[in-house]
Amino acid sequence: MPRILRLLFALALCSLPVLVHAQESRFTVGTASAKPGEKVTGYLDVPAGIDPGTQIPVVVVRGTKPGPTLALVSGAHGTEYASIIAIEKLIHDLDPAQVSGTVILVPLVNLASFEQKVPHVNPVDKKSMNRFYPGKADGTQTERASYLITKEVVDKCDYLIDFHGGDLDESLRPYAYWVVSGNAKQDGVAKEMALAFGLDHIIISADRPKDLSATRYLDNTAAMRGKPAVTVEAGFAGTVETDDVELLERGTLSVMRALKMLPGEARFVEHPVWIQSIADVSSPVTGIFYPLVKRGTFVGEGMELGYVTDYFGKTIFEAHAPAAGVVLHICAVPTMNKGDNIANIGVVAAKAP
Ligand SMILES: [Zn+2]
């Protein structure tokens, strides 16, 4: 990254209202309460309501030196395993003696999904745990958990990264979302976070709800509360590949360097592919899915992505790309139900933002 840009980034960082907690003796998230120099584990206790309660694990890594607070959240979808394992590695590797500021790590939001190997939703209430923010104190388990995460994690951090990946049935190539809030200064910082993370495909995410009471997504909930946020995705179809886990771990450490929370230089991706929109393809029929392209392939408009047959082998649907772009993910399994996602095509932006 050119020196002048880095200087502008540093200036933008300085002018954001960052909560420096250095003077407080304790920093508490849920039941985890850490003094400077400590790494403490605890839980976000989601109380029972109209359905059972749950305990979401949380770790606070409190640096010995003052600095901002960064939240790292994964496992909203509990079978996006690579992202969960990346945060587990960071829990092990982050050394409070090296850190300036505080890191809040929530490795596994959707415990029931992980334990029961159920993709996409919380099996307790059948809701996605990344669609009900800012949550509700008197809602179902997903809504109560989202409410608690908003209060305990989003409100207490200065920056946030949400970790995802391809779920059990998704073959995904890695990418990041740059969350655009409309506040130019904040969005500049979030963009630098996305570049510092280093994934080479970045979605310009400008169309998420701006209504504070219905932000739906975690990244957007943080962004609309003034916290620069990015979402990152790596891993696919239940695998925990070293390459994917390392992309996520190294990217996080690079963002921490960019935010001056760790010593050393951040590594910024120089020429990412900017994605301006997503064209999604879903199946109008139930049957057996046969893919014809792989994750990461560039496809032209109209190109066949795959087809669905009935259980006797007769083709009943051909899926074509609605636009030219990159296959960000494609269905990884033969099971295909009416309405299921077949593929997401990332439409490449004409020029870098
Ligand atoms: Zn996810």
How would you describe what is shown here?
There is one protein chain. The strands form 3 sheets. Strands 3, 4, 5, 6, 7, 8, 9, 10, 11, 12, 14, 17 and 19 form a 13-stranded mixed β-sheet that branches. Strands 16-15-13-18 form a 4-stranded antiparallel β-sheet, with no helix packed on it. Strands 1-2 form a two-stranded antiparallel ribbon. The chain is built from 7 helices and 19 strands. The chain folds into 2 domains: about 5-260, Aminopeptidase (3-Layer(aba) Sandwich), CATH 3.40.630; about 280-350, OB fold (Dihydrolipoamide Acetyltransferase, E2P) (Beta Barrel). α1 crosses α5 (about 185-195), α2 packs across α7 and α5 (about 185-195) packs across α7 (about 240-260). It is an alpha+beta fold and about 350 residues long. The structure holds zinc ion. Zinc ion (ZN) binds next to loops.
CATH topology (level 3) name of the largest domain = Aminopeptidase
Beta-strand fraction estimate: 25-35%
Structural class: alpha+beta
Low-confidence stretches: none
What is the helical fraction, as a range of percent? 10-25%
Total discrete domains: 2
Indicate the CATH class of the largest domain: Alpha Beta
- Calculate Rg over CA atoms: 20 Å
Beginning-to-end CA distance, first to last residue = 15 Å
Number of strands: 19
- Overall shape: globular
Instruction: State the fourth-level CATH superfamily of the largest domain.
Output: Zn peptidases
Mean pLDDT: 95
Hetero groups bound? Answer: zinc ion
Summed up, the helix count is 7
Q: Return the CATH architecture of the largest domain.
A: 3-Layer(aba) Sandwich
Q: Helix and strand string, N-terminal first?
A: HEEEEEHEHHEEEHEHEHEEEEEEEE
**Main sheet summary:** 13 strands, mixed
